[in-house]
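Example 9 (inverse folding). The structure is encoded as follows.
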């Protein structure tokens, strides 16, 4: 599994509390603890929690599928994540899983807890919901993402017309009920939904991509902003589906973490003025 790609969750001052909550439930550890950024790791997977302020609220357009191997495990995660949360689909037996439930926890993060066959090393899988003007585009998105990143593939696809049952809204038969794709070794699930949800993709849940050099940074940035995507600040962008990515050179983290506070601060100030991150300009600021 690739730890250069990982989700980032946006918080309004409660990132640390949330980090401790998830580490307790999933037996994880905090690997970075700063006022703005908390990094946590569980099951060998990384997650970044960002105290960004009140601007963005997390919603179910991106949820996290937890693949469990026993019914007891499903129950255990469900009970703990439900503390102060609410069920979106009750824990029950469904056509696709003997024991499954969808919930929103007290930090507004949504989880799908699922008894299934774990075919890979990745235990927790971000799941993207394509709806409103994106409804019906899950397949297009999978092709777009897998053509942008190396070591990528589209896995199993279940369409609504494939004789599946148990879904609340009538869906076009060609729409994707459940799709699996991998970008550079990191797994995602996705689905189309015709239901008129009161939310959509926003900056509250983004994917971070750590890059090795400027060429890689340029490639991801140019590809993901193409055909209707848009650039934002500090390495953030939205792709043509409105999904947010952060393209972050490893060199930026290295320079920002320098023990010389004055130099690190110059790097941060240079970064704050950038859209796409330019490594040479960061190094110039560092040495200035």
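The amino acid assigned to each position is listed next.
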């Amino acid at each position: 599994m690739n730890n250069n790609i990982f989700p980032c969750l946006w918080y309004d001052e409660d990132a640390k509390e949330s980090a401790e909550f998830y580490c307790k439930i999933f037996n994880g550890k905090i690997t970075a603890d700063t006022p703005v950024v908390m990094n946590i790791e569980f099951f060998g997977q990384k997650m970044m929690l960002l105290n960004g302020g009140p601007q963005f609220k997390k919603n179910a357009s991106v949820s996290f599928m937890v693949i469990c191997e026993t019914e007891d495990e499903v129950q255990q995660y469900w009970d703990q994540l439900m503390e102060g949360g609410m069920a979106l689909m009750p824990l029950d037996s469904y056509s696709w899983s003997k024991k499954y439930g969808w919930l929103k926890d007290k930090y507004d993060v949504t989880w799908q807890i699922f008894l299934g066959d774990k075919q890979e090393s990745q235990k927790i899988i971000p799941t993207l919901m394509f709806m409103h003007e994106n409804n019906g585009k899950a397949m297009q998105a999978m092709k777009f993402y897998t053509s942008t990143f190396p070591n990528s593939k589209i896995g199993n696809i279940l369409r609504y017309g494939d004789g599946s049952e148990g879904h609340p809204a009538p869906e076009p038969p060609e729409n994707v009920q459940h799709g699996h794709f991998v970008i550079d070794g990191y797994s995602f699930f996705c689905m189309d939904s015709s239901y008129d949800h009161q939310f959509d993709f926003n900056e509250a849940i983004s994917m971070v991509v750590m890059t090795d050099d400027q060429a890689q940074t340029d490639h991801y940035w140019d590809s993901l902003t193409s055909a209707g995507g848009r650039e934002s600040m500090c390495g953030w962008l939205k792709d043509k589906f409105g999904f947010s990515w952060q393209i972050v050179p490893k060199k930026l983290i290295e320079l920002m973490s320098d023990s010389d506070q004055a130099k690190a601060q110059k790097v941060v100030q240079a970064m704050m003025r950038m859209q796409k991150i330019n490594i040479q300009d960061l190094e110039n600021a560092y040495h200035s």
